[in-house]
Amino acid sequence: MPDAFSFRVLATDGAARHGEIATPHGPVATPAFMPVGTQATVKGLPPEAVRASGADILLGNTYHLMLRPGAERIAALGGLHCFMNWPHAILTDSGGFQVMSLSELRKVEDKGVTFRSHLDGAQVELTPERAVEIQVLLGSDIAMQLDECVKLPAPRRELERAMRLSLAWAERSKRAFEQAPPGRALFGIVQGGDDPQLRIESARALVDIGFPGYAIGGLAVGEPQEVMLRTIEDVAPVLPADRPRYLMGVGTPEDLIEAVARGIDMFDCVLPTRNGRHGLAFTRFGPITLKNARHADDPRPLDEASSCPTARQYSRAYLHHLVKANEMLGAILLTTINLAYYQELMAGMRATISTGTFADFCAAAREGWARGDIPVQ
Amino acid sequence: MPDAFSFRVLATDGAARHGEIATPHGPVATPAFMPVGTQATVKGLPPEAVRASGADILLGNTYHLMLRPGAERIAALGGLHCFMNWPHAILTDSGGFQVMSLSELRKVEDKGVTFRSHLDGAQVELTPERAVEIQVLLGSDIAMQLDECVKLPAPRRELERAMRLSLAWAERSKRAFEQAPPGRALFGIVQGGDDPQLRIESARALVDIGFPGYAIGGLAVGEPQEVMLRTIEDVAPVLPADRPRYLMGVGTPEDLIEAVARGIDMFDCVLPTRNGRHGLAFTRFGPITLKNARHADDPRPLDEASSCPTARQYSRAYLHHLVKANEMLGAILLTTINLAYYQELMAGMRATISTGTFADFCAAAREGWARGDIPVQ
Predict the structure, then answer these.
(1) How far is A39 from chain B (nearest CA, A)?
(2) A 310-329 residues with CB below 8 A of B?
(3) Which among B51, B83, B321 is the top mutation candidate for probing chain A, defined by the most A β-carbons within 10 Å of its own β-carbon?
(4) Segment B371-376 mean pLDDT
(5) Nearest to B328 among A315, A320, A331 (CB)
(6) Inter-chain touch B83–A317, beta carbons under 8 Å
(7) What are the pLDDT digits (tens) for B167-211?
(8) Are A31 and A269 in contact (CB under 8 A)?
(9) Three-class DSSP labels, chain A
(10) Residues of A with CB below 8 A from B322's CB?
(11) Do A332 and B328 touch (CB under 8 A)?
(12) What is the pTM assigned to this prediction?
């Protein structure tokens, strides 16, 4: 009998929390970073390589999967876990964010959003109920309510309208999710842009509706980091301490430690995978651009002290060559290195929250990034 | 102390041979298929995945590596094995074939060939001596002489000229290779197009010069399979039985069994890797085009009896989805499956040559390909 969704906090250090989420597909240690598996694959990596990086949960994109290959098809094939050969936990988003960023001719109404598919131009309707239905078909362990995410900066009136619409959709999503198989969870999403009052109102109303977990959406959409951190500071205290808090679409390694320090438990972001495909490595020394000619003759690995074999076994010269030659293996190795670095960072946070030394860990990480890359010999 | 190059025949069955090549980087069981690692990577696979497919030797392309990242650079970085993290055997071609097929404004003279790089237009000279020097710098276990390969059909006069030039280059290559570190080998290349007399003359003259192994070049360049097989039948008996015979740039699974049946020991070809990137799988049931819509809802693996976990663990529906969505993982999984199938085929040939049942093995393989793919349920 698989575990039902639950969450327990195992240790705290200031506002930072280390905990564990139980899911029907195994436990998730928090703070957790979820690699993004947009089209039923983390780009460039077989699932066993994603697992080897340290991930115990990944994110699937409802928008992409509903359009291709289709939610009903994936359900008939045994669900997303089976389809993509990933037996561990999966969180799916609601599709709302990608509708806003990828599709054309979208129309937002109270009942839902209609849009044209970016693949073939077909008109598609996504309602809160359909978003839940799709995620149930996919079989995700954690589903997200449909919400409306507004790009910043935006007028307050617009932020308020989208926040209230998202609240109405939260209620309908919760009702629709009552039909889901037992053990799975649906999270509500706090909206309100960069307006503290709207954010607090949104969070309180969601807590009144009641969800097993809460996300903060509508950030990492162009605002300065300080706005994001202040919003977390406003919202986190309103959310119940015994429920996980998920900051959507974030972020850089620095974003992650700052958000964890403010009480966030879960993250997803395309940065480690997308930047890896574009020749950028995340390391203890900060980001390193492998295309740079200074690496061409450098026999040293990216980081000989890394826990990731790929970061230790290949020379910078070789990674530089692969990136310059536009070889798939360059994207594969850098994606591997980046996901491992992100997971190493999360593991370090979990360990030091447990021992009450989280602040020291963050200071050391920041110091390493500030010192920059080791000089060429 | 690493092994010096040597070859011994372990078993024969008709003209087919099973043997073992010793190299400074480990043994190579023959008949052997060498995956192509053009730009210091087998496209889409980390070296441990290439190894896991069953390969104990791969091919590197001198033309690509001399232009980028450069032979002197690779030598300074410890040689090609170290550069690409492949500790097993490597054979390099001479660069001649790609000069003919990829570069512009090439000029063939007695002293060598000059051409413009397809990367930046720089003028480059490649002589027999320089081709050997580059391969020594790369550190390849088996180097190839520079030759001139002529596209078929071609006038006899042209075939004869290129064959004689290749013979002159063979002598110069052998002399230049006397400077190579001990234990490595240089192969001569039989030319002569589709003309039996020229082929036999070329083979005899090369044997007179004397090489530790012989290749048949200038095939798989557009001629019918029967011309290729007849050429092997003409040439193989002229070559010494105690030296490996390498058929360059071949081929389909059927080509491989036909050539082994005629005494060939080594092959290289881009088909399993290139076709894998284009959505085609080689299987016991013949080639399967994963893009075909009939796979979209098929939960069955490509081949549940395969020795390759990838061919057993992913559904046809998932592979179809990845190929349609143009996801890197589609290319990665199909490349893995194809290389494993090729190696499984070679292992099957080696085993059945040893037991004197090679003809049965070939008949069963041909029967499977002819029967075609298992029907959709």
Answers:
(1) 8
(2) 310, 313-315, 317-318, 320-322, 324-325, 327-329
(3) B321
(4) 87
(5) A331
(6) yes
(7) 999 999 999 999 999 999 999 999 999 999 999 999 999 999 999
(8) no
(9) CCCCCEEEEEEEECCEEEEEEECCCCCEEECEEECEECCCCCCCCCHHHHHHCCCCEEEECHHHHHHCCCHHHHHHCCCHHHHHCCCCEEEECCCHHHHHHHCEEEEECCCCEEEECCCCCCEEEECHHHHHHHHHHHCCCEEECCCCCCCCCCCHHHHHHHHHHHHHHHHHHHHHHCCCCCCCEEEEEECCCCCHHHHHHHHHHHHHHCCCCEEECCCCCCCCHHHHHHHHHHHHHHCCCCCCEEECCCCCHHHHHHHHHCCCCEEECCHHHHHHHCCEEEECCEEEECCCHHHCCCCCECCCCCCCHHHHHCEHHHHHHHHHCCCHHHHHHHHHHHHHHHHHHHHHHHHHHHCCCHHHHHHHHHHHHHHCCCCCC
(10) 39-41
(11) yes
(12) 0.98
ipTM score here?
0.97
Residue B58 main-chain phi, psi, to 5 deg: -135, 165
At residue A1, does pLDDT exceed 90? no
Distance CA B218, CA B222 (A): 10
The one-character DSSP state at B315 is: B
Give B273's strand partners.
none
Q: CA of A295 to nearest chain B CA: how many angstroms apart?
A: 12
Give the phi and the psi of residue B140 in degrees, each rounded to 5: -65, 145
Q: What share of chain B is helix, strand, coil (3-state, %, to 5)?
A: 45, 20, 35
Look up residue B218 and give its amino acid.
G
Q: Report whether the peptide linkage leading into residue A299 is cis, meaning its omega lies within 30 degrees of zero.
A: no
Q: Is the pLDDT of residue A377 over 70?
A: no
Question: Average pLDDT of chain B?
Answer: 96
Report yes or no: A116 and A123 within 8 Å, Cβ to Cβ: yes
Asked if A296 lies within 8 A of B78 by C-beta distance, the reply is no
The CA distance from A27 to B286, in Å, is: 42
Per residue in A144-180, pLDDT tens?
999 999 989 999 999 999 999 999 999 999 999 999 9
The closest CB to that of B297, out of A76, A318, A321, belongs to A76
Q: Which residue in chain A has the smallest CA separation from B42?
A: A329
Q: How far apart are the CA of B318 and the nearest CA of chain A, in angstroms?
A: 6
Amino acid A99: pLDDT? 87
Instruction: Give CA–CA dist B310/B94, Å, rounded.
Output: 34
A44 neighbourhood in chain B, CB within 8 Å: 328-329, 332
245-274 in chain A: CB under 8 A from chain B:
none
As given in the structure block, the two tokens for residue A376 are 């060429």
List the 58-117 stretch of A: residues with Cβ below 8 A of B.
68-69, 73, 76-78, 83-85
Task: Please tell me if residue B40 touches chain A, with a CB cutoff of 8 Å.
Answer: yes
**CB-CB under 8 Å, B297 with A321:** no
